[in-house]
Amino acid sequence: MSDSTTAAPDTSAAATPRPAHGGDGSRAHPSMVRSTLQAIGGLMLRDMRVLRREFVPFLVRTVAQPLLFVFVFAYVFPAIGQGIGGSAGAGDFATILVPGLVAVAIIFQGIMAVALPLSNEFGGTKEIEDRIMAPAPVQAVGIEKILFGGAQSIVAGLVVLPMVVLIPSGQVDLAVTSWWLLLAVALLSALLSGALGLTLGTYVSPRQIGLMFSVVVLPLTFLGAVYYPWAALDALPWLQHGVLLNPLVYVSEGLRAALTPSIETMSAPAFLGALVVANLGLIWVGLHGFVRRTVG
Questions:
Q1: How far is residue 84's CA from residue 91's CA, in Å, rounded to a whole number?
Q2: C-alpha dihedral over 279, 284, 286, 288, to 10 degrees?
Q3: Is residue 16 part of a domain?
Q4: pTM value?
Q5: 23 by DSSP, 3-state: which?
Q6: Contact at 8 Å (CB) between 142 and 198?
Q7: Residue 11 lies in a domain
Q8: Tens-digit pLDDT profile for residues 147-202
Q9: DSSP-based three-state secondary structure for 92
Q10: d(Cα 164, Cα 182) in Å, to the nearest integer?
């Protein structure tokens, strides 16, 4: 007759599970932070390697729109004496235009660098499935996309700035009022562009990504204080207050305050505070949508 007795569970110390990083688990949290940072760094290096191979397309999409706009409105129009090209206003308009076009380059680059690749990864290549297998929380993949989009936005701004300064026929009154202010605006704007790209990339269906430019990007541009200072809208109070919902307004006004002291702008606490709030809101919404699309 077989023995029907069952061995008692081993309750010895050897059979007791232990934390992976020490008996008290005190190193678990620092180890998780370290592995998350390493994963973000690895993803950044991977994306930079891809960007190096596609640097020419990156430059083309960065400079095409600002270059054409400043060439037509700040060089051709003054030369033929049309509209804003009257000689008296050519320099003033170019001075207004330069920070706005740099702001557009920064915001557009974040959208192009984050939203469009996300659309492909979700709808076509499914590459996002490989990324979320990194040894880090899913949110870390979204944060890396924000940071990498922001880094590309900084490069885009640096590339566009000298071009839009040199092309206008009128003199551009450019002077850095405060390097700290310029640095703060540049970093907040770059982060904002990446967060906006993540939000649009996760909430807009891949089939509707083309529609996004007509419904979202064009209104952002034309109502973003790019071609005029925000203070000039005081003749239309309803519009002046309505455009405050557009984050590009604060990027344009911040760069104008830092680069063109001769132009009246929004106060520094106003646009810096708005940029911080917009960043926090878009990062939260973007990461929430990213987790929902990848895990849910």
A1: 10
A2: 180
A3: no
A4: 0.78
A5: coil
A6: yes
A7: no
A8: 989 998 998 899 888 888 888 767 788 888 889 999 999 999 999 999 999 999 88
A9: helix
A10: 17
